[in-house]
Amino acid sequence: MTNQVAIESDEIQAQRIRFMGLALPVRLGELAESLAFATVASDHPKYPEFLTRTLGVSIRLIDWTVAEVDPTVQSELAELRSHLAGWLRDTQAIGDDPAKRARVVAELREWSQKILDRSGLANYDNWQVEFDYPPGIRAAAEVFV
Amino acid sequence: MIHLLRTRATPEQLAEMLQDLEDWIKVAVDIHREILAGGGKLHAEDEAALLADGSRQEDIWGATWEPDLRQVTCESLINIRPRQNNHSMLITDPLIRDRVVEIVRRLLEGT
């Protein structure tokens, strides 16, 4: 058991190091993508485990990003984290209630779009910025410019 | 582990691609060459594997395959491509989206 915990911890640490190596806009973009993907949980046969996993990923990405964003985005991320943590505590009840599920999906979609907007990655004017992204967005941006 | 697939994935390849994220596989699909790279933690890593193999940026699109639902979600950060008139993470062109789904299903599900 102890070994299992140590292995998981190492994996998360490796994820964190890799994630922290990305430019801040890309980290926010990855968070937006993660929130959008969490909506898949709504129809998943392994609900609520799947929702727990996807929300957990998003919470980690927030924790690894929040310290470096400006105060406005910081408070938005704090609010988002609070929502995610609440849903995480309530996964069974959400799963039992189709209306709640639909509401969570809608809110995840809204938050995903908001965070993507904050990242600036979807803003046409920002595409001449070379984000340090290996290579994805950066390669696309170079093609675009 | 990232695999570059030109033919249907073997069970071993699927298991290895699931190693990193466990419940889903992030893929980048080359809709021109009809191949995919999958198994990275980020879509950008899969995209990098295709670029290194000679794929063109404009042919590569990101998706995520969820094995329990057998669902392909065409939503990824690498899909934001203003030059190709795709301004969101979702692939908005239904022809491209259908092609991505078809290639993913063929190479990961064998259908």
Largest sheet of chain A: none
Question: How big a fraction of the residues of chain B is strand?
Answer: 15-25%
Poorly predicted ranges of chain B: none
From the 3D structure, determine the CATH topology of chain A.
Four Helix Bundle (Hemerythrin (Met), subunit A)
Mean pLDDT of chain A: 82
Q: Count up the domains of chain A.
A: 1
Q: What oligomeric state best describes the polypeptide chains here?
A: heterodimer
> Any low-confidence stretches of chain A, pLDDT <50, length ≥5?
1-6, 129-136, 138-145
Q: What is the first-to-last residue Cα distance of chain B? A: 23 Å
Radius of gyration of chain A: 16 Å
Helix run count of chain B? 3
The rounded distance between the terminal residues' Cα atoms of chain A is: 52 Å
Write out the strand line-up for the largest beta sheet of chain B, numbering strands in chain order.
1-3-2-4-5
Shape of chain B from CA axes?
Answer: globular
Topology:
The complex is a heterodimer of chains A (145) and B (111).
Chain A: H1 2-20, H2 24-38, H3 49-63, H4 71-89, H5 91-96, H6 98-119, H7 136-144
Helix pairs in contact in A: 2-3, 2-6, 3-4
Chain B: E1 3-5, H1 11-17, E2 25-30, E3 35-40, H2 43-52, E4 60-66, E5 71-73, H3 94-109
Antiparallel strand pairs in B: 1-3, 2-3, 2-4, 4-5
Summarize the structure.
With 145 residues, chain A is mostly helical. Chain A has helices at residues 2-20, 24-38, 49-63, 71-89, 91-96, 98-119, 136-144.
Supply the key terms.
heterodimer; A: 145 residues; mainly alpha; Four Helix Bundle (Hemerythrin (Met), subunit A); 0% strand; globular; disordered C terminus; B: 111 residues; alpha+beta; five-stranded antiparallel beta sheet; 3 helices; 5 strands
